[in-house]
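Structure request: Signal peptidase I, Nonomuraea fuscirosea.
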Amino acid sequence: MSDPLDEQTRHHVYVGNAGVDGALDRGWLLGHFKPPGDPRHSDDVEIKWGVHPQGDERARWVDGEERTALLVLISGRFRVELPGRSVLLAEPGDYVVWGKGVDHSWRAEEPSTVLTVRWPSVPGYRVE
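Returned structure:
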């Protein structure tokens, strides 16, 4: 028989692979959209593992942004467009942060993998 603490802990731990799990939910690994009770459910933060082929770009600019965001380049070359500024992430570890109210768009200049962290997690927000 297992220790009750071990059983309880098991329900609060999730082990996965960002590439595999992200492919199931448009790259999103953590946020309000995961089921309540799932350790990946959060109203505070969203995390995405984005894998983008060369030339992939946002369908339209995000306007009226309600969150702060951090985007970190894992591999490739990835351009983030901000009002009046274009930011090229070219070296692994390059990152950009923008705050609430900053509109944005992006484009993968090469096949790219990026990690995005946004906060807070806003229910109902989605760009098709």
